[in-house]
Amino acid sequence: MAKSFERLKGELARSYPALSPQLQRIASYALEHPQDMALDTVATLARGAGVQPSAMVRFAQALGYEGFSDLQRVFRGRLVERSNHAPGLHNYRERVAAFQADQARSGPQGVLAQFVADGMAALERLPGQVSAADLAAAVRILAGARTIYTLGHRRSFTVAYYLAYGLTQLDLNAQLLDSMAGMLRDKAELIGPKDALVVMSFKNYTQEVIEVAQTCHARKVPVIAMTDNALSPLARHARVCFQIEEKASKFFGQLAAPVCFAQALVVAVGEQIEK
Amino acid sequence: MAKSFERLKGELARSYPALSPQLQRIASYALEHPQDMALDTVATLARGAGVQPSAMVRFAQALGYEGFSDLQRVFRGRLVERSNHAPGLHNYRERVAAFQADQARSGPQGVLAQFVADGMAALERLPGQVSAADLAAAVRILAGARTIYTLGHRRSFTVAYYLAYGLTQLDLNAQLLDSMAGMLRDKAELIGPKDALVVMSFKNYTQEVIEVAQTCHARKVPVIAMTDNALSPLARHARVCFQIEEKASKFFGQLAAPVCFAQALVVAVGEQIEK
DNA sequence: ACCTTTTAAGAATAAATGTTCCATCGGCGG
DNA sequence: CCGCCGATGGAACATTTATTCTTAAAAGGT
């Protein structure tokens, strides 16, 4: 399935000389315009290749496919395959697949293997998900803030805590906003425009956290949000919003990517204030 | 044209609250399955999102597109865009060049790239660092414990918190040991042999944490340790000890691997108690 | 040059897809 | 309680799309 486009290419190269002139023409067109082959209709492609639609169908059938649609599936598969690899620097997918096969599928080991695979996939996508402009803006805000407040509940508290910890290590004035003794809203009211608020929430979103982001944003506090989705209620209440996909294949939200991002953010701020 | 998917995302985020519940549902489905949106038919997508085909068309029109096909073009555009950016699968040199360019990139983006690379390397090593026997033993201890206490300071608090959180989600009785009000030692004395203590510390090791592990271990409390090194002072005071290398090439300790491990541990325990 | 076999074209067809329309449901205000 | 309005479901519709079929053309062999 993954390599079925490669297989098609090989198949094509082998049987090419035996094809009729018109089918050869289609063959080269297909290999030269794989994207069109994936998305366009028979009629469009036929026009592009200078043949009749029926010829496209015959072409597919000559290669052993049931029809054109069947053949097109191969090209579409290639497209999503490449798209999945897009932002990554390395191509870890094969390695992950290979190593998953080695691992026991079930039991604690299998769970660990699954989490590692998901985590690596999430990390691979991470750099493509944060824009340079957003990152720079966030660093600037944090480096210049009087006090940095971090806020996150439940799962996200993990990240919120780390951010506060890491920023404190840089001798920045960072405060972890907790809801201890029900004082969250009162504490949040003390945040001003010269401070900064880093707030994170993944679904299911915590209402309380969102409200704090909302009121602070309305009060012109620079709010930096980390969430999972452009539709997150957090996105609307932030000056800078990072969307970090945490979708896991099987289990609930991965934290590897958010944690890694938080660490990078801390270090980036550290480099900024050194200048 | 190139950024039209990004524009769509922004547009969507802005108008999301004004949409009807069903259209919101479609919106999240669309952003979570952009590939399907690009390739599948309305009927298939509608089934996937749990709505009627007509709703898909209404969705497209609500966003200002003429119809579904018009909207789908945006998703298709994104797909070919990303595919074009993909490192040539056959051209290895391109890939290396791209990778080096990213490495060389300085500033916040470079920091992020470095962390991602380190994190992936750490995750890759992770499964080889935990033995099946240790993992099974830890799962058994946790699944059978009366109360699970987790303890970690400074950086490790991140992981300790998550463990307590995750185990609590399983309806287990998990307590995060904090040193609030200087009560850590007093709280630790309440831990008994039927409980379990998960303690983690990476260097520089926190003396206080190690002492707690030591006294608990001496009192026959099952202690599970996460640390970085076989020589760690924690290793001597634990019944089960996981050594998770957190060495980073350039910056201080990576947390991606420990966090990922903690998540896997939680899920593994969850699977165990289901039986 | 004639017949046979292969090849292409173009219309015809049947399936599928996107779109529209209308009836129904549910909430809200009068 | 009634009527209004937007939202939803579902079927009907028209269009598009892949595929097939028939016919014409070309090529190749004797």
Describe the structure.
Two copies of one chain form a homodimer. The first copy, chain A, has helices spanning 4-15, 21-32, 34-39, 42-49, 53-62, 68-85, 93-102, 107-129, 132-144, 157-169, 184-188, 207-218, 256-273, and strands spanning 148-152, 174-177, 196-200, 223-227, 240-243. With 275 residues, chain A is of the alpha/beta class. The first copy, chain A, has a five-stranded parallel sheet, sandwiched between helices. At the A-B interface, helix 6, helix 8, helix 9, helix 10 and helix 13 of A face helix 1, helix 2, helix 6, helix 7 and helix 8 of B. Chain A binds a DNA duplex (30 and 30 nucleotides) through residues 20-23, 41-43, 51-58, 67-69.
